[in-house]
Design brief:
Blueprint: E1 7-11, H1 16-27, E2 31-36, H2 39-49, E3 53-57, H3 63-77, E4 82-85, H4 100-128, E5 131-135, H5 138-142, H6 148-168, E6 174-180, H7 185-193, H8 195-203, H9 213-225, E7 236-239
Parallel strand pairs: 1-2, 1-4, 2-3, 4-5, 5-6, 6-7
The structure holds nicotinamide-adenine-dinucleotide.
InterPro entries: KR_dom, Sc_DH/Rdtase_CS, SDR_fam
Protein name: SDR family oxidoreductase
Keywords: NAD, Oxidoreductase
């Protein structure tokens, strides 16, 4: 499943699942513009992958950052074929305790960043018959407690993705969603803070474990980004060990 000669933007691509995607994409022949808030992690990815990546330190909820990422893909690598809207941030607490700022964070980094990057990327994606991979979550599909703003953002992203998959099908641009379950550093921190919820979640996974970002999740995103998935659009793929079965 090659990504030879493809150019991707990966938001949140300096750590967690996004970093795994960045590294796998480069391994499969792509060049990647990584957008992330973490300067040090971004520098480390560039140090390893050298000319195959460009790093932009920026906040994905800022439309100007989306425009800069697309411009960088064009200037450095000659265009843009794949957009991976992976970045996301949120706070975990009961619905009645979630503040305006919590909602702003979840919707800003989730829904609005996804919208901004899709809008910024559209001309290039149309030119190259590109692919968009957005991110949902089992927390949204299942209604996990304490995740109201995050769940709302993630389910809004799935609705947006289905609509745009239909609208952009005429341009041969595919838009799909991945809902992963992976033990990243972020999930490990969440597990430490919420041991009961973590134990419950892990016990529900038929394959018996939280996934590995590099070997269990990134290949699913690479598949959706590749020409092997050329007849798949508007779908949500659960990369979650069988925890949730969508119909
Ligand atoms: N890990 C899981 O089990 C799981 C489960 C369901 C959904 N997801 C989704 O998968 C995606 C990746 O998850 P993860 O666990 O790797 O997350 P993570 O928190 O480990 O990493 C997120 C990355 O995004 C970056 N980021 C956060 N806010 C940003 C901002 N405003 N601007 C730019 N960069 C920003 C972070 O610096 C980090 O590099 C997210 O969309 C998440 O909601 C993950």
């Amino acid at each position: 499943m090659t990504l030879e000669n493809k150019v991707a933007v990966v938001t949140g691509g300096a750590s967690g699942i996004g970093e795994a995607v960045t590294r796998l994409f480069v391994e499969r022949g792509a060049r990647v513009v990584v957008v992330d808030l973490q300067q040090e992690a971004g520098d480390a990815v560039v140090a390893d992958l050298e000319d195959a990546v460009a790093f932009i330190r920026g906040d994905v909820s800022d439309r100007a950052v989306a425009d800069l990422a697309v411009a960088t893909a064009v200037e450095r690598f000659g265009g843009l074929d794949i957009l991976v809207n992976n970045a996301s941030a949120s706070r975990v607490r009961p619905f009645t305790e979630q503040t305006e700022d919590d909602w702003k964070l979840a919707l800003g980094t989730g829904l609005f960043a996804t919208r901004n990057f899709m809008l910024a990327a559209y001309p290039e994606l149309r030119r190259n018959r590109g692919a968009v991979i957005n991110f949902g979550s089992g927390a949204g599909i299942d209604g996990q407690p304490n995740q109201a703003s995050y769940a709302a953002a993630k389910e809004a992203i799935r609705g947006l993705s289905r609509v745009v998959a239909n609208e952009w099908a005429a341009d041969q641009i595919r838009v799909n969603v991945v809902a992963p379950m992976a033990k990243t550093a972020g999930v490990a921190a969440w597990a430490d803070a919420n041991p009961e919820q973590y134990a419950l979640s892990a016990a529900k996974v038929p394959l018996g474990r939280f996934g590995d970002p590099r070997t269990d999740v990134a290949p699913v995103i690479a598949f959706l980004a590749s020409d092997d998935a050329r007849y798949i659009t508007g779908q949500t793929l659960m990369a979650d060990g069988g925890a949730i079965k969508l119909r």
